[in-house]
Amino acid sequence: QVQLVESGGGLVQPGESLRLSCAASGKFFRSYAMGWYRQAPGKQRELVATITSGGTTNYADSVKGRFTISRDHAKNTMYLQMNSLKPEDTAVYYCNAHYYSSYWGQGTQVTVSS
Known about the structure:
Helix content is 0%, strand content 53%. By secondary structure, it is mainly beta.
């Protein structure tokens, strides 16, 4: 069983930055494939970025060049640095880990508004 806890969401103005964190339980963190997803009101959950156990990253076209996913194996934590935020980035952001099964965090709200 893997438990995931997100933090770092909030209300920011367009153009500002936020960093999300996802703390994971379990002693096999470095083996987890992980990712960030988001769900805006009335829309389906969509992939934002993923990172493999080896550090290979993948991004949705809508966030390329603005968001950076990373992980710290010593802290069992994954991050999402979000720069140049836009109103369309407003959503609940979810952390996902895959290790034989798929696990989800509870989500953290990101609101971008002037």
